[in-house]
Amino acid sequence: MPSSSPFSRLTRRELAQCLAGLGVACAWPARMEAQAGRAQFQMNGETLTLSNPLVAMRWSAAAGRLRALRFSDLSTRQAVPLAPDLFTLVLAGGRAVRSSELSLAGRVESGRVAGDPKSIRRAGQRPGVQVSATFRDAASGATVKWRALLLDGSRYLRQEFEITSGAQDLPIREIVLWDCDVPGVQEAGTVKGSPAVAGQTWLAFEHPLSTTTVAGSRVRCVLSRQLSLIHI
């Protein structure tokens, strides 16, 4: 008998790819955004910074690990400290695969991304800068490809994740993209896929079946699932 779970109707590709958004909501006209300045990537010792004149995101690459540090609204000079994990995969049995504990498979890469003038989305027409890295879990052989993208003049940073199983199926039960303490955070909606907001800063797990929960200052954005990631 077919399962009634919505996950049974999703393809492997949909389950293996996730998006996390982090941005600032402010009343900038679109023409001012486009003129706000180029995105750039800088590496200062073990600190990595992806920024434009509006927002900045910083990570640490100390000891061969990649850890989130903080997200800053440069217009107000306010910073949101972040938990070190870019993602956590909770497996059947309770094991948590945390990005901050995983080794990087290769170097952190960066480069300019060209805009597509024919894109029907305004964001798709803009150039920007991307930062990417690949994480590997030695115990399962699974890999996670991560990319952060900031467009020129954008108030929004997107992180993309592509999860691939190793030699065996990967029994993921939760994909956690945000789990941190943010002062003043609130849920911004009651339906699945809603973001969390703290002042002008918002964060989200960009999936229509994700859930956002807030308990005090702690916010979690999670996608629960039932099917293992298939080894093929």
Write a compact overview of the structure shown:
The chain is mainly beta and 232 residues long. It has helices spanning 12-16, 30-34; strands spanning 17-24, 40-44, 47-51, 55-60, 67-73, 78-81, 88-91, 96-98, 103-104, 109-113, 128-136, 143-151, 156-164, 172-181, 186-187, 196-198, 201-205, 211-215, 218-224. The chain has one domain (6-224).
Characterization of this structure:
The protein has 232 residues and is mainly β. Helix content is 4%, strand content 47%. Strands 1, 9, 10, 11, 12, 13, 15, 16 and 17 form a nine-stranded antiparallel sheet that branches. A hairpin with a 2-residue loop joins strand 16 (196-198) and strand 17 (201-205).
The helix-strand sequence is HEHEEEEEEEEEEEEEEEEEE
Can you give the helix content as a percent range? under 10%
So what's the overall shape?
globular
Q: What structural class should be given to the helix and strand makeup? A: mainly beta
Taking Cα atoms only, what radius of gyration do you get, to the nearest Å?
Answer: 18 Å
- Largest pleated sheet: 9 strands, antiparallel
Mean pLDDT value: 86
Tally of DSSP β-strands: 19
Distance between the termini: 25 Å
Q: In the residues, how many domains can be counted?
A: 1
Strand coverage percent: over 45%
User: How large is the count of helical segments?
Assistant: 2
Outline the low-pLDDT stretches.
Answer: 1-15
